[in-house]
Structures are given as structure tokens and as C-alpha cells.
Amino acid sequence: MSEINIGLGNHDDKTRLEAKSNYVHFWEKQAKNLFWFSPWTNPLDWNPPFAKWFVGGTINASYNTLDIHQKNKSDKPAIFWEGENGESRILTYHDMWIQVQKFANVLKSLGVKKGDRVTIYLPMIPELPISMLACARIGAIHTVIFSGFSASSIKDRITDSKSKIVITADGGYRRGNIIYLKQVIDEAIVKLDFVQNVIVIERIKNKIKLSSKDLMWNDLMNNISNVCVAEKLDSSHPLYILYTSGTTGKPKGVLHGTGGYLTHLYSTFKWVFDIKDSDIFFCTADIGWVTGHSYIVYGPLLHGATQVMYEGSPDFPDISRIWNIIQKYKITLFYTTPTALRMFMKFGEKIPNSFDLSTLRLLGSVGEPINPEVWKWYFKTIGKEKCPIVDTWWQTETGGIMISALPGLETIPLKPGSGTLPIPGLDISVIDEYGKDVLPNTKGYLVIKNPWPGMLLTLWKDDEKYYEAYWSKYKNCYYAGDYALQDTDGYFWLLGRADDVLKVSGHRIGTAELESCLVSHTDVSESAVCGIPDEIKGEAIIAFVVLKQNVQKNNMTLQNELLLKIRNDIGAIATPAQIYFVSVLPKTRSGKIMRRLLKAIANKEIIGDTSTLENVDSISEIQSIFEQLQESIQKKSE
Ligand code: PRX
């Protein structure tokens, strides 16, 4: 495995040893970088699988991201906002502070109290971080929903979190199209009487229908005080719920706390991105996902950093948009996804080469494994062989980055495709089915053996599921659900999901969620969903469907109905690339669908052991249907 050595090649042994000798003490030291209203009395209460960090300490996320910068950085831009249509706004740390306090007072005036949930369904506009920080200021728990989710998904999430306030916009721009967010919310909350108010921001300024629950953001912000003292909250006070897909049919409400989470973000933002006061940071994620929560909102603002927040699609109005933004704002630190890079790479190096990218000094990748060829392209074409690449592995549940190179701490050789080493203070291993560490270069399951500060508190109102999903496979050990291996240098190589979760364009989609959506169609009796490799998206979804008897509709009509159902029930991001209609699914004698076989057929791999299969004939039928369809797709494209 080739190495790229662009630094001195030094480990920070001192920090790593210190962290290893006493990880609790190490994190305690990092926590002191934050502002605490009162100090903790116990650094860690570890009652597996529940961890409480900095017990007895009181803190506020909004205070740590805004108030602390008012003395020295109040005029420094916090956000350079770039609209998809070319508009721009600049918000300084002072502007953010005032807006957040005003909106916090708005929420209070509507009866929002500490611990109440507030759902936020907004496009990438500054009012999104403002809303989140306003919640944090008063101790309300924000729950942001990605603006691509459908009314039905939103309804499930609002119902689960019992949010009494929903914040949305009249609409948003996405690849030149308008998405009518307010309409989606109207549909989602029809029967949700506990939702007291919907606050609407005017983004596209179209005519919208207002109900008695609806209030306009601008009206509310007009005559309200701009002073709101930040609540002194317990370190483990919940900061947010973020729903993410797992192996069950229902998304999980990952619950994050405050003091530990902020400590993790403060430290990783410094070590991974090597943040300096003069840097301009640009993360292309959407705040609707965890990357945006941690490394657009909390991490950069804790450091008083300046960043660019881009509203729209990376390929609008054309594929050069991101390079244009880097040139325009003189970006120094750039954080994006392998899916975006694969798309850029497809269009060749001529486009990025025609922009001035010379301000870049560090590049990052997140969300899915980055292929070595793409890594090298990123390094050479975008970084001009002078920028280290940080390939950051982490999850919604981990809160912050867990495995990555750390240019802000040490300069170790990089290996294209490897995340390198864990963050100091974390105990990460690759183990086998029986819980034993595997030998170097052997594939196994990635686990985390110690609690860490950014770790989720639990799943919202479901401690049992929390235990079941992450802590039941191995005793007192967090099961991440990923395959990995460690090479002889101890470097980690992430090898994709080990469970029934797909990664499509870096977005997490549970196969069970899709299957339960498909079988809720009146004509469907059974379904199985799996992923196949996709050149750009990393993975594409395919679905196998068994129809009920005597269904008269043709396959084309049914396919369209099912695709529409998925878009309506989940959202466009979960749309399968292909649906295959089969008469039976391969099952074990105990009735479990053997997805492994479906995946092997779809990937044209060797089928392997079929001795536990109940219905061996199903294999040849599925194989033949799959091949016929592939042929006809090929013919059509010729
Ligand atoms: O499979 C891993 C993959 O993304 C999963 C977590 O997804 P999510 O909670 O949506 O968070 C994504 C953003 C942090 C992981 O279980 N993953 C994330 N980063 C990487 C990765 N796979 C390989 N390399 C990465 N750098």
C-alpha cells in the first residue's frame, strides 16, 4: 500500500501516550478549552452503555459558539453565505449573536421551555444555524430534518419527538428548482395537534397559504429584545436529536448531549483541520446531516472560524460551482464527500485547473470509503500535491470524527484510501465474530472499546433499542456496523457496512425501511432490498419484489407506483435504481430472506453456500430475471 509523505512524518507520541495512559484525564484536559459556568465534579460517569461526561459541570453551546467571541472577534465574519442563485450575505459573530438571542426570545415567547423539542426543516440558509443555536441557548432540543425528506417521513419524526414548534421556509432552491417546504410541512402536520406553531421564513417569497398556527419569522423578529441570557445547562443536557437509518424499519433518534459533544468537536476541529484564525473553511455537507451539525455549526463556531455556507447543489449552474466558490472566497480548508469528488473527477481536470485553487492548504473527505484513485486525483488535481488529505471516519452516533490524520497535531505519512489512525483518547479495534482482535490485514468488525466524549447519550425515548443496536453484539463494546482492517502500521482501512444499511451518495439508508415501505403497497407481498456498486454514488439501491396473487397491472405501471411510493413515504434520496419482479425470494428454512444471495446475483459474484436455502429454484429464476433486465437496459442505452 503506497504512502504519501508530505510532512515531517512525526507522530505526536507525547499526546498519544498521555491519552492512552488515562483517557478520562486526557478528555478532561481538552474540556478545559471550553467555557463552563461551573466546573464538573466527576469527569466521567460510565454505567455501560450510558456515559455521562463532566458530571456536575454547567455549560451552554450557544454561549461557547457566540458569546465568547464577542470580545475579540465580534466583527469577524462567521458565515459567508452563498445562495444557489448567486445572492450572498455576510454574518459576523456579532450578527449571529444578536440574531440568535432575538430568536431565542421568540421561542420563549411562544412557550418553548428547556427540554422541549423544536423541529427544523429548512434549506441551507443562515436562519438554520441561527434556529439551532437559539434552541441551544434556552435548552430546547433541536431536531433538524434534511430538506429532501417527504411529508410522511417528517410526520414520523415530528410525532416521535413530539415537537411543539416547527421552523420552515416558504421554499428553497435545489439545482435551479424550487422545493416548496411549507407545503410539505402543511401535509406532515395535518393531524398533529400537539404542534402549536409553524414559523415560516421567506426565502423564495412566493405566495403561501397561512393557517392559524403559522407565524412569519420576520414579524416575530421585528419587535423582540436582542438580549437573552444563555441557560446554564447540565453537561449531559440534550442538545439535539438527529434521526438516522438503521437496520430496523424505523429511523433512530440519535440523542446528543452538550459538554462531551462540544469537547469532542472542539478537539477534532483543531487536530483534524488544523484551524488557524486566518482560515476560511468550506464544508459542502447539508446541515440536515450530522456532518453539517458538527462541522458547519458547532465545530467551526466554537473556534470562532470563518466559513462559507453554500445553499445549493454542487453542480449548479454547472460543474465548476465549487471551484468557483473556492476561488471567490479564497478557501483554505475544504471538506467534501467521495461522491462529489467522483462526480468532479468524471468531468476531468481541465475544469478545476481553470480556477485559482492555490489558497487551499488542507482537504477532507467524509461519509463513505474513498477509492484510492479518487484520493490521488483529489491530492494531485485539487491539492496540487501540497495539501494533506484527511479521510475522516465517524458516524451520526459518534458525534465527531473518530479516525483521521491529524495535521493540527502531527504529520504522519498518508496512505490513499486509509483513514490512518484513531483520534488520541479513543480505543478502536477490529475484532472477529467472537470478540477477539484480528491479525493485521484481516477484515473484521470495527468496535470502540472506551466511551468517548461525543458519544450519543441514547436513542430518543428508547434505551432498550440503544442497547440492542450498539452494545448487544459485544459486551461493553460499541459496535459500529462497519467492516474494517488494520494494516501492519496500525492504519485503519474502512471497508463498508457490515449490516443492512446502504450508503447512497454518502447518505445512510436502511434496507428494512425501504422494504417496509414497499410491502405497504397493496399489490406487494414481499420485498428485499440490497446495494450494488455505483461509479458515482458509491452504492445504488436495487429492490426485488414479490407481488400478491392475481395482480393484473403490468410491471411498468407497478414500478412507477412503487417508485412514487418511496418518494412520497421516504424521499427522493431513497429511490431504487431498479426494481425486479420475482415470484419468490431466496429464504432459509426458518423463513429469513437471504439477502447475501440477492447481493451476489446483482453483483454477478459466486453464489456460495446454498445448503441452508429452502427454495433453491428461486436462485435460477432471480438470476434469469436479473440478466434479462440488464440486457434490455443495455440495449436501450446503445
Ligand atoms: O459506513 C461508515 C460511513 O458512514 C457511516 C456513518 O454514516 P452517517 O451516520 O450518515 O455519518 C456520515 C458522516 C459522518 C459509517 O458507519 N463512513 C463515514 N465516514 C467514512 C465512512 N466510511 C469510510 N470512510 C469514511 N471516511
CATH C-level of the largest domain: Alpha Beta
Please give the number of β-strands. 30
Mean model confidence by pLDDT: 95
Query: Structural class of the secondary structure composition?
Result: alpha/beta
Ligand set: adenosine-5'-monophosphate-propyl ester
Largest sheet: 7 strands, mixed
Rounded to an integer, what's the Rg over CA atoms? Answer: 24 Å
The share of residues in helices is 25-40%
CATH H-level superfamily of the largest domain: ANL, N-terminal domain
So, CATH architecture of the largest domain?
Answer: 3-Layer(aba) Sandwich
CATH topology of the largest domain: Rossmann fold
Q: Widest sheet: strand order?
A: 5-4-17-16-18-19-20
Structure in words:
α14 links the parallel β19 and β20. This protein folds into two domains: 4-485, ANL, N-terminal domain (Rossmann fold); 500-637, ANL, C-terminal domain (GMP Synthetase, Chain A, domain 3, 2-Layer Sandwich). With 638 residues, the chain is of the alpha/beta class. Strands 5-4-17-16-18-19-20 form a seven-stranded mixed sheet, with helices on both faces. 31% of the residues lie in helices and 23% in strands. The chain is built from 19 helices and 30 strands.
